[in-house]
Design goal:
The protein is an alpha/beta fold. It has 14 helices and ten strands.
Amino acid sequence: MTILNRIRSLAVLLATTLVVAGPASAQQASPAPGQTAPVRVASGVQYELIARWDVARLNQILTTDTPKFAGITVSYTPARNAVKLYRVTYPSVVPEQGNRPISATGLLAVPDTAETVFPMVSYQHGTVYGKEQVPSFPEQSPETQLMIAQFAGQGYLVTGADYFGMGASKEPEGYLVKGSHQQATYDMVLASRAVLADLKLSDSKLFLSGWSQGGFVTLAMLEKLEAVGMPVKAATTASAPADAFAAFNGFLNFPRKIDASWITTIFMLNVFSFENYHNIPGLARSLLTDETYEISRKAYYREPFDPAAVPTDLRKLIRPEYFEAQFFANSAYGRLVAETSAYRWVIKTPVRTYYGLTDEAIRIEIGQLPMTYQKAIGNDKVEAVPTGDTSHRGTFATAVPQWKAWFDAQ
């Protein structure tokens, strides 16, 4: 792909922050039958039925929509049942801000069958630029659509947090803010179980999965769930940046020819998230050049801007001193990035981390890092699984049916 086409692609992605995206499929979802007003449950959680997707819609996602999104054809097991989709609103707190109470949103997908007990997958989504390109707005989230079709369409409950600042949240985005990611996902599982109880349903076992940013969130979530004693049967990731400090140092100091042009947006979203959630005024100005600060700020806050003006060269986005490794490591921003990892504890749950050999965002070694660390301490619970010569999206699309086959066997 030429640099011009890469810029155009980035512009299209970022432009979605300014408009409401249309359906990902020409086939419309069935309107929600019956009650559409939110239902409140005793825990302070509320939910509303937003759609019912039939088997034909789910199989179209598997055979047509996902190949278009991922740029790769993958064989998926077909859907067997329709799925009801619920948007869940739930109370949570921001750990970085003294547990300040907030409201968050997410999705619960329920198989439309006569069964009352199902296995459940918590899916953690990847980086998106539109506030509504998240699980609770599934028409705008191709990755969520695939999880619904492959899992919920075959007898699994699927739940997914939008994360703080995304979906219907009133907060600013908390991109790669570890504590907030852990809290959002943990509370979403609790909220989903409250909704299930109200529906006279339950889950039999919990699995975790996530792609890209969501791979990091999945590992961070697993760390929290193990700490609080919530059982997890198994967890999987695809293209997970388990160590942001390692990944960011690679982008800054050892760039690859295949590195994606949109890597700049990761720094843009992350530095403003750290500034907001850790309450460090001026953090973004300390990292970003004077020329790119304002457009970066507008992109983060989803204000109108010219997407074509977003830099695709890190050296135009970031001040030159940050390309000196010691300066980056000792800076206020670098110290926060160094704390953003999720693999350095004794993992008890079986985990498989999937990685692509030609992923434009995640190096092979980053994909293998959780396994490498765990094996270094003598732990065999984590296995790194290559998906072949796959792109960032292709790695996800290839991994999903492998996730399901492994979960089915648990």
